[in-house]
Amino acid sequence: MARIQQTLASQGSFEKFGRKSKRELFLEQMNQVVPWAELLALAEPYYPKAGNGRQPVGLPIMLRTYFLQQWFGLSDPGMEEAFYESAVLRRFAGVDLGTAAAPGETTILRFRHLLEQHDLCGEMLMTVNLYLESKGIRISTGTIVDATIIHAPSSTKNASGQRDPEMHQTKKGNQWFSAPRRISAWTARRQWCIR
After folding, report:
1. Using one digit for the tens of pLDDT, what is the confidence trace for 75-100?
2. pTM reported for the whole predicted model
3. Residue 146 to residue 88: CA distance in whole angstroms
4. How far is the C-alpha of 160 from the C-alpha of 162, rounded, in Å?
5. How far is CA 188 from CA 30, 66, 128, 144, in A?
Protein backbone atom coordinates (compact mmCIF):
# COMPACT_ATOMS: atom_id res chain seq x y z
CA MET A 1 0.00 0.00 0.00
CA ALA A 2 2.85 2.40 0.83
CA ARG A 3 4.30 1.79 -2.64
CA ILE A 4 1.05 2.93 -4.34
CA GLN A 5 0.86 6.08 -2.20
CA GLN A 6 4.48 6.90 -2.97
CA THR A 7 3.81 6.48 -6.71
CA LEU A 8 0.74 8.72 -6.59
CA ALA A 9 2.55 11.33 -4.50
CA SER A 10 5.43 11.47 -6.96
CA GLN A 11 3.25 11.90 -10.08
CA GLY A 12 3.52 15.68 -9.93
CA SER A 13 7.27 15.47 -10.46
CA PHE A 14 6.79 13.05 -13.38
CA GLU A 15 5.85 15.94 -15.69
CA LYS A 16 9.48 16.98 -16.13
CA PHE A 17 9.97 13.84 -18.22
CA GLY A 18 6.93 14.37 -20.40
CA ARG A 19 6.51 16.32 -23.59
CA LYS A 20 3.85 18.74 -24.73
CA SER A 21 0.97 17.17 -26.62
CA LYS A 22 -0.35 18.59 -29.90
CA ARG A 23 -3.40 19.82 -27.99
CA GLU A 24 -1.21 21.69 -25.50
CA LEU A 25 0.89 23.25 -28.28
CA PHE A 26 -2.28 24.31 -30.10
CA LEU A 27 -3.70 25.91 -26.95
CA GLU A 28 -0.43 27.79 -26.33
CA GLN A 29 -0.68 29.23 -29.84
CA MET A 30 -4.33 30.19 -29.34
CA ASN A 31 -3.45 31.84 -26.05
CA GLN A 32 -1.05 34.08 -27.96
CA VAL A 33 -3.05 34.86 -31.10
CA VAL A 34 -6.62 35.28 -29.83
CA PRO A 35 -7.36 38.86 -28.63
CA TRP A 36 -8.73 37.83 -25.23
CA ALA A 37 -8.93 41.38 -23.82
CA GLU A 38 -11.08 42.57 -26.75
CA LEU A 39 -13.37 39.54 -26.47
CA LEU A 40 -13.78 40.04 -22.73
CA ALA A 41 -14.72 43.68 -23.38
CA LEU A 42 -17.41 42.53 -25.85
CA ALA A 43 -19.05 40.08 -23.43
CA GLU A 44 -18.53 41.93 -20.13
CA PRO A 45 -21.55 44.31 -20.35
CA TYR A 46 -23.91 41.33 -20.67
CA TYR A 47 -22.29 38.98 -18.14
CA PRO A 48 -24.02 38.70 -14.71
CA LYS A 49 -22.40 40.64 -11.87
CA ALA A 50 -21.75 39.23 -8.42
CA GLY A 51 -24.59 39.96 -6.00
CA ASN A 52 -26.09 38.45 -2.90
CA GLY A 53 -26.64 35.02 -4.48
CA ARG A 54 -24.28 32.47 -5.89
CA GLN A 55 -21.08 33.96 -7.32
CA PRO A 56 -20.85 33.63 -11.13
CA VAL A 57 -17.92 31.80 -12.66
CA GLY A 58 -15.32 34.26 -13.90
CA LEU A 59 -15.92 35.63 -17.40
CA PRO A 60 -12.38 34.75 -18.61
CA ILE A 61 -12.99 31.10 -17.66
CA MET A 62 -16.36 31.01 -19.41
CA LEU A 63 -15.06 32.69 -22.56
CA ARG A 64 -12.16 30.25 -22.85
CA THR A 65 -14.54 27.38 -22.13
CA TYR A 66 -16.71 28.51 -25.05
CA PHE A 67 -13.70 28.57 -27.37
CA LEU A 68 -12.56 25.13 -26.18
CA GLN A 69 -15.99 23.76 -27.04
CA GLN A 70 -15.77 25.21 -30.55
CA TRP A 71 -12.22 24.04 -31.23
CA PHE A 72 -12.67 20.48 -29.96
CA GLY A 73 -16.35 19.94 -30.82
CA LEU A 74 -17.43 19.32 -27.22
CA SER A 75 -21.01 19.35 -25.96
CA ASP A 76 -21.86 21.07 -22.68
CA PRO A 77 -21.65 17.82 -20.65
CA GLY A 78 -18.58 16.80 -22.65
CA MET A 79 -16.85 20.08 -21.79
CA GLU A 80 -17.55 19.64 -18.08
CA GLU A 81 -16.19 16.09 -18.21
CA ALA A 82 -13.11 17.22 -20.19
CA PHE A 83 -12.22 19.70 -17.44
CA TYR A 84 -12.04 16.87 -14.92
CA GLU A 85 -10.07 14.64 -17.28
CA SER A 86 -7.55 17.07 -18.78
CA ALA A 87 -5.13 19.25 -16.85
CA VAL A 88 -4.19 20.93 -20.16
CA LEU A 89 -7.75 22.18 -20.71
CA ARG A 90 -8.03 23.30 -17.07
CA ARG A 91 -4.78 25.27 -17.31
CA PHE A 92 -5.84 26.97 -20.54
CA ALA A 93 -9.24 27.99 -19.18
CA GLY A 94 -7.90 28.98 -15.75
CA VAL A 95 -9.90 26.35 -13.86
CA ASP A 96 -8.30 25.50 -10.50
CA LEU A 97 -9.95 22.48 -8.91
CA GLY A 98 -8.18 23.31 -5.65
CA THR A 99 -10.29 26.44 -5.21
CA ALA A 100 -13.55 25.79 -7.10
CA ALA A 101 -15.31 23.19 -9.20
CA ALA A 102 -15.12 23.32 -12.97
CA PRO A 103 -18.07 25.06 -14.67
CA GLY A 104 -20.99 22.65 -14.86
CA GLU A 105 -22.88 21.81 -18.03
CA THR A 106 -25.79 24.08 -17.06
CA THR A 107 -23.45 27.03 -16.48
CA ILE A 108 -21.80 26.39 -19.83
CA LEU A 109 -25.21 26.14 -21.53
CA ARG A 110 -26.40 29.41 -19.99
CA PHE A 111 -23.23 31.23 -21.08
CA ARG A 112 -23.62 29.98 -24.65
CA HIS A 113 -27.25 31.09 -24.64
CA LEU A 114 -26.18 34.50 -23.31
CA LEU A 115 -23.77 34.89 -26.23
CA GLU A 116 -26.44 33.81 -28.71
CA GLN A 117 -29.12 36.05 -27.16
CA HIS A 118 -26.97 39.16 -27.61
CA ASP A 119 -25.55 38.13 -31.02
CA LEU A 120 -22.02 38.07 -29.61
CA CYS A 121 -20.87 34.93 -31.44
CA GLY A 122 -20.67 36.69 -34.80
CA GLU A 123 -19.06 39.77 -33.26
CA MET A 124 -16.45 37.62 -31.54
CA LEU A 125 -15.67 35.78 -34.77
CA MET A 126 -15.31 39.08 -36.63
CA THR A 127 -13.07 40.48 -33.85
CA VAL A 128 -10.80 37.43 -33.95
CA ASN A 129 -10.62 37.43 -37.76
CA LEU A 130 -9.79 41.16 -37.94
CA TYR A 131 -7.13 40.79 -35.25
CA LEU A 132 -5.52 37.81 -36.98
CA GLU A 133 -5.66 39.57 -40.35
CA SER A 134 -3.92 42.61 -38.84
CA LYS A 135 -1.12 40.28 -37.68
CA GLY A 136 -0.83 38.69 -41.12
CA ILE A 137 -2.32 35.36 -40.02
CA ARG A 138 -4.78 33.67 -42.35
CA ILE A 139 -6.92 30.75 -41.25
CA SER A 140 -8.58 28.54 -43.79
CA THR A 141 -9.93 25.03 -44.01
CA GLY A 142 -8.85 22.42 -46.49
CA THR A 143 -8.79 18.76 -47.38
CA ILE A 144 -5.86 16.40 -47.43
CA VAL A 145 -6.30 13.66 -50.01
CA ASP A 146 -4.47 10.34 -50.01
CA ALA A 147 -4.93 8.23 -53.14
CA THR A 148 -3.43 4.88 -52.25
CA ILE A 149 -2.58 2.28 -54.88
CA ILE A 150 -4.18 -1.02 -53.91
CA HIS A 151 -2.66 -4.12 -55.48
CA ALA A 152 -5.20 -6.08 -57.51
CA PRO A 153 -5.12 -8.50 -60.48
CA SER A 154 -3.76 -6.85 -63.61
CA SER A 155 -6.94 -7.43 -65.64
CA THR A 156 -9.50 -4.63 -65.68
CA LYS A 157 -12.19 -6.88 -67.14
CA ASN A 158 -14.93 -8.43 -65.07
CA ALA A 159 -16.59 -11.89 -65.39
CA SER A 160 -18.61 -10.83 -68.45
CA GLY A 161 -15.44 -9.81 -70.30
CA GLN A 162 -16.27 -6.11 -70.14
CA ARG A 163 -14.22 -3.35 -68.61
CA ASP A 164 -15.25 -2.95 -64.98
CA PRO A 165 -16.41 0.65 -64.34
CA GLU A 166 -15.21 0.33 -60.72
CA MET A 167 -11.61 -0.29 -61.84
CA HIS A 168 -9.20 2.50 -62.69
CA GLN A 169 -5.67 2.52 -64.05
CA THR A 170 -2.69 4.49 -62.89
CA LYS A 171 1.01 4.38 -63.62
CA LYS A 172 3.67 4.32 -60.91
CA GLY A 173 7.17 4.38 -62.34
CA ASN A 174 7.08 2.15 -65.44
CA GLN A 175 4.42 -0.19 -64.11
CA TRP A 176 0.67 0.12 -64.67
CA PHE A 177 -1.73 -0.72 -61.85
CA SER A 178 -5.42 -1.45 -62.08
CA ALA A 179 -7.52 -1.32 -58.95
CA PRO A 180 -10.74 0.03 -57.52
CA ARG A 181 -10.38 3.72 -56.78
CA ARG A 182 -10.17 4.41 -53.07
CA ILE A 183 -9.50 7.91 -51.87
CA SER A 184 -9.30 8.83 -48.23
CA ALA A 185 -9.92 12.44 -47.33
CA TRP A 186 -9.45 14.25 -44.05
CA THR A 187 -11.25 17.50 -43.37
CA ALA A 188 -10.88 19.19 -40.00
CA ARG A 189 -10.63 16.21 -37.63
CA ARG A 190 -12.89 13.73 -39.42
CA GLN A 191 -11.94 11.03 -41.89
CA TRP A 192 -14.13 9.32 -44.42
CA CYS A 193 -13.54 7.04 -47.33
CA ILE A 194 -14.87 7.62 -50.86
CA ARG A 195 -15.09 4.65 -53.19
Report:
1. 999 999 999 999 999 999 999 999 88
2. 0.64
3. 32
4. 6
5. 17, 19, 19, 9
